[in-house]
Write a structure and sequence with these properties.
With about 150 residues, this protein is α+β, with helices and mostly antiparallel strands. The protein has helices spanning about 5, 20-30, 40-60, 110-120, 140-150; strands at about 10-15, 65-70, 75-85, 120-130, 130-140. A hairpin with a 2-residue loop joins strand 4 (about 120-130) and strand 5 (about 130-140). The structure holds adenosine-5'-triphosphate and magnesium ion.
Length: about 150
């Protein structure tokens, strides 16, 4: 059986410090089955860690756990980061301002969601009072070039 045939790999991590390592190790292992460059693997790891940190810091989930669901395709990785916390409205999150980084007493955070969108090809967030699902997709570069040639 190949990893693509398994279709879904699930990982539940407790919201305790240093659990990011378990997550990044899983991403590294699964990424071997997709023709990602080294930089792309780092981008996926960074985006997933941002989503996990958000669940850790903001979800206030009673079960104190995050579920990660990975789907490994021949040319893409899909991951869902699920928490059962209080949820939020992504439309109400203000865009961070680079100028604010220069000033004291101004909130310098608020970059995680923006980074995730920059690092991944697709980011969709579904959130309500029962929790949040962040679904992200990354395509291998080789696949992107092929798709580009086909559309020419
Ligand atoms: N899983 C989540 N549950 C509840 N609220 C969330 C969740 N993810 C994000 N948020 C909300 O969206 C806001 C923006 O998230 P974002 O990651 O962009 O910034 P941040 O976490 O506040 O700061 P930074 O990521 O730069 O350290 C958060 O401040 C929080 O209010
Ligand atoms: Mg964040």
């Amino acid at each position: 059986m190949t990893v693509q045939e398994i279709k879904e790999i699930m990982l539940t991590v407790p919201m305790i410090p240093d659990m990011e390592l378990a997550v990044t190790k899983t991403v590294e292992s699964l990424s071997r089955f997709i023709p990602f460059t080294g930089d792309q693997v780092d981008e996926v790891k960074h985006a997933i860690i941002e989503a996990c940190m958000n669940a850790f810091e903001h979800s206030r989930s009673a079960d104190c756990r995050i579920l990660l669901v990975f789907k490994v395709g021949p040319c893409k990785l899909t991951v869902e980061i699920v928490d059962h916390g209080k949820g939020f409205d992504p439309a109400l999150v203000e865009d961070p301002k680079i100028e604010n980084k220069l000033f004291k007493n101004v909130r310098k955070r608020g970059w995680g969601l923006k980074l995730m969108k920059h690092l991944m090809d697709e980011v969709d967030i579904v959130s309500n009072r029962n929790g949040t699902v962040v679904r992200m997709v990354k395509y291998a570069d080789a696949y992107r070039k092929e798709a580009l040639n086909e559309s020419v």
